[in-house]
Amino acid sequence: MLTNSKQLTIATDSEWHSPDKSWLVTTFTVIGVNKPNRFLYVDESVSNECKQQLIKWGFEENVSIEFVLMDDHLNLLDKVVKQVDPTGLFKTIRLLLFYSPKDVEYSIGWSKFSELLLGGFIQQKRNISTPQPVKLNLNNHEYKVSIKDMKGWVNGSLNQLAESVGVSLDAKNVMDEYKSHMREGLEALPTLFAAYSIGDVDHLSNIYDAFVELTRWVQSNVIGINEADCFNGDNIPMTTGSLVAATLDKWIHSQHANKNLLKFAMRKLGLLDTSAPEYKFSLAAFINTTKQYRDVEALTNDLTAMEVDTKAEQYKLLNQFMKAKFKHFGHSQAGVQYFAKVTDDSAAFNALVQGGRCNNERPSEYVCHVGADIDLASCYGSALREFIYPLGLPTVWGFKPNQPRLTLRQWLKRNENELVDNLWTVTVSGDLSFTQDLIYSKLVTQTQINRAGVGDWDKNTTDPDRDDDLSHIPGDFALIRKQILNGIITSDVLRVLRAVATDNEIKQLLDTEVVSGVAYLATNRVDSVDQWVNTVVADKGQLYNRDGKHGHSRDTRTRCWVGLPLEDFIGKLVNERNRLKKLKKSESATEDERTLADAKQAALKLFINTAYGIIASPYFSVGNTVVANNITARARVGAWMLNKALHTRQSITDGGMYSLMTVPVLRDNAKLPGLAVLSDNTQWKDARFTRVLEPLACVDWESEFNNDGNVLKQLDQLTTQHINNFWKRYGLSLPFAIEHKLENTFTVAAYINKAHYLLVTRQGKWVYKIRGAREYNDSDLRKHPTFALLKAIVEDSDKLPNDLSYDHRSLMKGGKWLEVQHSNGYPDLKDHRPGDEITEERTARYNNTHIFCMTVAEYEKRNGRKTFERGEPVEFFERYREDGWSKVHAQMMLDSLAAGKTKGNKHAAKRIA
């Protein structure tokens, strides 16, 4: 692995006693130095017998043992450096750890750690990081310390990360029975505890090196990036998002034989950063260079010569142009970050990226019998590899505040001949007289978008009601049935609307007003990256204010673009992963070959699963809302088509549950229902029996469930045929293959809200999925009451727990600690430190935002209900729980929170399949 020879690599880990948060041990392993290189610092208050056993073990295992009194000023890293680098030969330290801020606290001392946290020098978002190397005085020498927290590479545990790179943690689970009381474990099994403690740090460097090598293999061998441009141990990003975004950026820059020539074109179409220290010099360099170089051959010669002598006077401006700081480049002016900063017209709404479909499709019920769990196969991955990534500036539509808007009809009439499938979006708003449930709304103002654009991105990604968190634009993503507010139309959505909507429905949809739009137009497309670079270099256009007057802006820069097929990026990753998965299962493969194949396919999976997120995110220059919205729109269309053809009860991004006994069927003489009829599954049956409900493929599924279930093996095929038959009448086809989780076929299921459900499978297994809640098995913590509610429903009970309080356990992150310290509130959390386990009591509330909303006002009324009024808690529909869940649910359907009891309500929920 390429690395810095003047750098120390030190891995660290600590253990503490959870009940009283008292420190026990901190371990260090130093890589690349002469022994001693393994250190174990132990709380001096342990018993003498424990000390004797540890000293003996340390001598046998070549581990330096020292017993110390931990206090807020003790710097154990200083002790380590004094022994491994007594003369200050090394200048920098790479500190490896996994997840816990306590590992940093116990390494350098709380006083120094808290100082660095308060100063912003150490941060903790997904993982712990140092935006810039931190200067620490160790052994009377100054070192630059970079924290490398590997938690950013995995959603799970250290063991899962180790397994994913083919490293085995031998002693990882030996102390599991003492996890909640580690001090007893240290006293009872001192040497085993020591081996367990030192084991993690011994492997941290191996895991780090293995991950780096796997990343380099993906970038070089699979994607085809030049090996010299691949990441190494010093510069590899420490989060999966940053890693995959940077890899996509490297791939884009590798699409031209001369990467500096492509870099020049990217910068010529870019926007300088006016806050950069050398901005004036950069501006002069930009103006001079873009005027001087209009010929690719001359530019190529000077770029080559400049590489030989970067200090040559004649290349001074060109050199500055190539290293100047830019806010945006030629491929980053269609991303969330760019559009969110538009303040003078409605183009800011192009910053919105709508999430997947997450909807309770039949909120009038909450039970489903004899059913299956269906998914769109490889939903986002398969969509990604079919799309192209556009390189160049898009054409953008935005309206001034006082300017009349175009209707969707007018916009399409002017532009549709120029639109390229999957490379345009148009955002619309308007009222409808009919109901529809295909186009979602984003309830946000331009002020909120602009505020996010200056750095106030919405970080509330753990909110169980949020489905659009990747773009980090605040505001609700809601399905409003008789209004559209900032709804996004793409080629896939428009195709479905035209195929399904009645004449009156399509007329009203085309009468909605265009808020904003963005597209890569067909006439601006060029055939190759070479042609794109040549066109950009020769371009005389510019972005400027005529005579410097505000409001007299013109942008004459070229809109030429070239499409980079994502099949050459995502497709290569998917194909290689499929090959390795087959190799892993091959009987002829050796155990070592299988292990390596598994590690490689895990690395590929990480890249594949992260690719969509980085295109939708505001944090990366490769972000592109056109591509992101077309991908999510295709997924939403797929989930919508599944629902209409199968009557799924809940749509959750790429699938849902449905009853095998009652799928919708269109008779040959049926008049095709439009959007309004399709928008409510309970209205499917008609008086003439041309729209009916039948068992899927006319199979007696209840009997099949009770027998050997052989027909279930054909479920994918039978369901695909049914879906195709349903949509063939409309001239449509599902844009995805489908697959069932056969282990989740169920005899009964309960579901509430948008995404809470319980499946009781054919095998008798209970499968819970409750957003934002943990099951807390084998714990004295109180579970979310929805667990008990769903259990009661499947057991045909109407009981809703009277006590709706539950426990939420989490580890305090650095950001939360800062919030607590700077706040006048949180009295119970003031004394907690980052990494402490905190348990908060919460109370469940049952609202009805998941039940059909016809207008934005109706949704906002429901969503704006307060949980506290004048300091007193306010209950929502759970106030009716004494009369049972059916009463609570009936009041939800009525949207009635009126005081008093209303028994025997005729709107009580149905308990049917």
- Largest sheet: number of strands, sense, barrel closure: 7 strands, mixed
What's the mean pLDDT score? 91
Q: Given the C-alpha coordinates, what overall shape results?
A: globular
CATH class of the domain at 7-223, please? Alpha Beta
Tally of separate helices: 29
CATH topology title of the domain at 7-223: Nucleotidyltransferase, domain 5
What is the strand content?
Answer: 15-25%
Structural class of the secondary structure composition? alpha+beta
- What is the end-to-end distance? 59 Å
- In the predicted model, the low-confidence regions spanning at least 5 consecutive residues are 900-913
GO molecular function: DNA binding; DNA-directed DNA polymerase activity; nucleotide binding
InterPro entries: DNA-dir_DNA_pol_B_multi_dom (IPR006134), DNA/RNA_pol_sf (IPR043502), DNA_pol_palm_dom_sf (IPR023211)
Organism: Nostoc minutum NIES-26
Domain DNA-directed DNA polymerase family B multifunctional: 568-636
Structure description:
The chain has 913 residues and is of the alpha+beta class. Among the domains are: 7-223, Nucleotidyltransferase, domain 5; 271-328, no CATH class. 36% of the residues lie in helices and 19% in strands. It is built from 29 helices and 35 strands. The protein has a seven-stranded mixed beta sheet. Strand 1 and strand 2 (22-31) form a beta hairpin. Helix 21 packs across helix 22 (625-646). The chain starts with 6 loop residues before the first strand and ends in a 19-residue tail after the last helix.
